[in-house]
Amino acid sequence: MKLQPDRLDVQSILAYGPGWVGLGNNGVAEKIEHSIVIGSRGEKFDWNCTRFEQLTAEHFAQLAQTRPELVIFGSGTRLRFPPPAFLRVLMEQRIGLETMDTLAACRTYNILAGEGRQVVAALLIES
Predict the structure, then answer these.
(1) Domains in the chain: how many in total?
(2) Lower CB count within 10 Å: N or C terminus of the chain?
(3) Does some domain include residue 76?
(4) Phi, psi of 70 (to 5 degrees)
(5) Closest CA to 12 of 38, 34, 45
(6) Are 11 and 40 spatial neighbours (Cβ–Cβ below 8 Å)?
């Protein structure tokens, strides 16, 4: 049974591997080798961190500014949860957050974006 359309009309993740993700939008592909935030409404900006330990509350405040209904946080090569204090601004604005390793976050983002959800993926790409 087919569950996804052949082509997404939103920014999507075409491929991924250790240390990189391949983004696509309107037939244009781009290989990204640094942490990035992408959204189903076209949001795309660098997320200035190379290690989980560098994350701060400000990183998550940036995500809240995009006003998604859900944030998918890709925590790098393994599952790690940010401190609850970092998530305060998301909770105050009633924005959901799901944490998973970055590769799982890529897959989840594509599914939710393809369903038309207002979702943002914050992908920690470790060097």
Answers:
(1) 1
(2) N
(3) yes
(4) -150, 140
(5) 38
(6) yes
pLDDT tens per residue across span 43-89: 999 999 999 999 999 999 999 999 999 999 999 999 999 999 999 99
In a domain, 7, yes or no: no
Given a cut of 50, whether residue 3 has pLDDT beyond it is no
Residue 117 included in any domain: yes
Q: Is 6 within a domain?
A: no
Buried b (16+ CB within 10 A) or exposed e, 3-12: eeeeebebbb
Q: What is the CATH number of the domain that holds 30?
A: 3.40.1230.10
* Amino acid present at 108: T
Which tokens sit at 46? Answer: 């660098």
Contacts of 2 (CB under 8 A, 6+ apart): none
